[in-house]
Amino acid sequence: MNGILKTAKNCRHYAMCKIDFLGSGVCASGLEKHFVSYYPQGRMILYEALAENKIPVTEKCVEIADSCNLCGKCDYQCYFLNEMRPVTVMEALKKHVEDYIKNGGKIKIAKEDSLLTEIRNIVGFNWATNDEAITATYSHDLSAISNPKFPDYVVLPITKEEIASLVKLFNRNKIKYTIRGNGQNLLGFAINDGAIIDLNRMKTIEFDEKNWLVKVGPGITAFDLQKQAQKRGYRINAAEPAALLCANIMCSGIMSTFSTTYGINADNFINAEFVDNKGDLFNLNEVSSPNLFSYKNLQHKDSPGICVSADIRLHPVTDDECGILVPFETLDNALDFIKDCSVRHIGLALGVVGAEYISTFLSPTKKMASEIKSIFVEKLNIPWLVVFIGDKYAIRAINEMGFPYFDQNLFNSLYLGLPSLKSAQWLDLIKELSDDEPYSYLKLKSFQELLETALSPSPKLYSQEVDPALRPFFEKLFSRPEMTDLVWLNMYRIMSSRLGRKKPFLPSLIYLPIDKTLINEFSDKFRLIAEKYQIENDFGFITPIDSGKRCIFEYDFFYDYNDPDSIQRIRQVATEANMLIDDYSVKTGTVKGHPYVLYQGFCRKENLLYS
Amino acid sequence: MSDNIKSAKALTGATGFLGSHLMASLLSNGYSIVILGRSTKDERLHERIFRLLHWFGIESLVNQITCVEADLTKDNLGIEDEEYSRLCSIVDSVIHCASDTSFAESKREKVMAANIGGLKGILEFSKHANIDIFHYISTAYAAGTGETYCREVPSIAKTFTNVYEESKAGAEKIISLFCEKNSIKLSIIRPSIVYGDSRTGRSIKFNALYFPVHSMQSIKDIYLKDLNINGGKKASIHGIHIDKDGYLFLPLKIYLHGKGSINLIPVDYFVNAALKIIENCPKSGIFNLTTNSPTTFETLAEYNEQFMKVRGVVIGYGKPSDNTLRNPAEELFDRFIVPYRPYLADNRRFDRTNTDLATDNLNPPEFTYEIFKTCMEYAIGVNWGASIFTIK
Ligand SMILES: Cc1cc2nc3c(=O)[nH]c(=O)nc-3n(C[C@H](O)[C@H](O)[C@H](O)COP(=O)(O)OP(=O)(O)OC[C@H]3O[C@@H](n4cnc5c(N)ncnc54)[C@H](O)[C@@H]3O)c2cc1C
Ligand SMILES: NC(=O)c1ccc[n+]([C@@H]2O[C@H](COP(=O)([O-])OP(=O)(O)OC[C@H]3O[C@@H](n4cnc5c(N)ncnc54)[C@H](OP(=O)(O)O)[C@@H]3O)[C@@H](O)[C@H]2O)c1
Ligand code: SF4
After folding, report:
1. Is the minimum distance from the CB of B205 to ligand 2 under 6 angstroms?
2. Which amino acids bring their CB within 6 angstroms of ligand 3?
3. CB within 8 Å of A97: residues ≥ 6 apart
4. Distance from first CA to last CA of chain A, Å, rounded?
5. What residues of A are in contact with residue B214 (Cβ under 8 Å)?
6. Model's pTM, two decimal places?
7. Mean pLDDT of chain B
8. Candidate CATH numbers 3.40.50.720, 3.40.50.10860, 3.30.470.20, 3.40.710.10; the one for domain B8-191
């Protein structure tokens, strides 16, 4: 496989190229055309399909290739996340199409059938198609567990009325339809044959500040809403930044490190509107509506319909919020800490992460991540960290509790000084220095100055590690304060975005009590399952919820998209991991597996956690 | 090793600094050794030992060794019955050198478990093997902090600098009682602070003497980097600069609790003296392996200045007052040397009557600049131990 095709085939389908998370802009044609096909992610899939002769060169294919102006924005985004440079693919796509035309190749024009005509009558000509270049780009979502499926039609409605009409049309014609947000779910739920209804044009945002809510259309991403909310001085509970909010509530219930305070599932919204499976509208707060606040411990529950808007809760923000990282020698100690904090309501957002997670996030490249991971574990003696966001009173409480921590300034120095850390010999002494009291070096009054002196942190230094062609951009990027601001990185959930860089991963998510024995048992057993199938694996994160009565635990399994054997093995791992969760669910009565939340994300958390 | 002849010495702690040197010396003198030790998660015991033999350049003597995975806290040392009986039948003496050498109070439980809890197995083994003599490698500081002249007698100390010293004194007592009860001869060998080989500088451990020097080197590196790469932005705040003669001027006031000195002996002396005691010990006894001419910290500071090409170090006595401003280098250095501070200005003197008798007046060499330099050059060459087994 040549390097370009390899890049295309390694697109993580993570939809991050659809949001402006680096402030460098988003692919202009995508913003104009809305189909995923016109975003870098779509072009990656399209190039793969053409290069492997899965589809012919079609009318839309030419349009998609032409509409890329090789601006390079996707290089920045994709390199930040995955250390890949998709522009090579974009160039290859354009060349493939140009050469085809130059060599007299015939361009296939998709034929409009009668159903497509009816669909177009509802949504307008431009917003529905059966062109293979488009349908190919909807044949994948993020999950590689499911087999790609080409839909017959892709439709982009803009109003709930259009959606209602579409549902009725598809029901009448016995056509399967599948809703697609940004295709970021983990199990292939956004692909199917039949019709795909892509909600990306439905981008309305209406703030109702006096009622602390914002009504969003189903095409709004967590990132875009958070940006708007932040501008007005609020915060929403946002999970994956590129996930559409309605999709996220629908599919998994929104959970983030802020769920410690803001909650999960029904805690995140006030009301929502739906088009049901017959094409009729209902409003969640009406007495006669289906009770989506209930929860049934059932996998593959049917979808109650299409969520066409949600009133998302707004949260107040104070100007003294800041982030700290509290290091721990053992997972048990970290768990004790987060439990204590959440029972006492200290802190806004809390998450235990391992060295893999933190080094992956901090490092601009895979190579550096693995070097940094060993420095964290072996030299700094930091196998575990708690990411903690709180106001000045919360930070004062941590001081009083006596835990040494990396404050925002130390974090800045550590982050932007990372390249110097690799060669810092004085680290050997730091570990001995901690012998009597772990991490006591953090209590040195002048540690900040020493760290700055020793690491010479700067955006320039940090950028030395990246591809030379991208250095000027990264230097500018890391001069922006938010890129190292723990609060910003967490509330926009940029902190976890690089986790799939080494390899795509499949997380196992569980709700369970903050019980050290139970969590260690799960970790051990997940590891054993993964090892049985030679699948790389690691601890993901743990976030306490509901006053420390429960937590969310993610364990990650890494696999290779393009290796059928690896996919086969990850499927077996997923099956056994789910069986393990089921066993514990029955055995303990307190453990719930996340897959069961599918289509039940609107439920009350109490019904999910305690029934 | 030939079976069923009582000719082997059992040695614990052979993977450590002093134990490995003792092992090498015993092997070179033709002894057979049963090594009671443990594997790590990455390396089996015999691999660890072989790596050390290689470091000493005596791989050819491997046949004189039997490596046995042993857990000192378990009955029969956690060894299978048959093997345990076989070992009992060949071992004629025990050298107990294993010890948790951490000073940290937070590690109290672990230190006590190893140094006191770990005695049970090795003492029971000594009884079962019906050994002739038990050699316990203790420390000169088992004498405690109350004494100014530490005699070669059982310790009656009540106060200690740290949990390590306390555990060593406690262990001496337990071992003495046990040996007395079971009519086993006992030699308690009490070295002071051991550094590398005085002739070659070679060592496998770089704590104690090395730690302040290593700390100084780290601080120097931090500021040199600032001076070379950042134009000394941070260094200049504290008056740190490079003098015309290339020396780094680093104002650093080190506070000691008073005047005193450090009692240092090289590992080659430790080995030679211990071997003489092991070979010649006619009756039970306590032996201080110490020097009669300890080195002052002031001398060490001079050596360090010359070696590191760093000046500006000033020694103060007593405690800095609460409003004394400490610059970052001082604060870091203060913190680095916390565990070793009590040993840097010590006024204890050590009786050596038994030692002189047993070792034919073998004395450690004076700690000269040449020895300091040789040892530090070796330490830096192996990156303070980080690359010790890759560079021979
Ligand atoms: C790496 C990774 C980490 C993740 N971590 C988290 C996390 O920490 N917290 C968290 O909350 N989630 C997490 N998720 C889950 C994921 O972000 C959400 O499940 C979210 O749904 C994805 O949004 P999407 O827009 O991509 O939805 P899609 O994948 O397009 O759709 C998800 C499902 O919902 C259906 N659907 C979409 N929109 C609607 C609608 N409006 N009405 C009805 N049905 C609809 C789709 O048919 C599909 O079944 C993670 C996912 C990934 C890949
Ligand atoms: N070095 C000095 O300056 C000095 C001075 C005075 C006295 N001493 C004494 O000399 C002896 C050796 O010291 P050292 O400097 O050589 O120490 P060291 O390098 O730290 O080695 C310690 C040895 O003890 C073993 N050990 C530690 N904990 C153990 C446990 N729980 N169970 C079994 N084995 C254990 C270690 O085995 P692993 O390798 O498997 O961990 C290692 O072999 C000690 O008794 C010490 O008190 C040393
Ligand atoms: S290079 Fe092409 S695909 Fe990438 S962002 Fe620019 S226009 Fe979009």
Report:
1. yes
2. A 27, 29, 40, 43, 68-74, 87, 90
3. A50, A57, A61, A62, A65, A66
4. 51
5. 428-429
6. 0.89
7. 94
8. 3.40.50.720
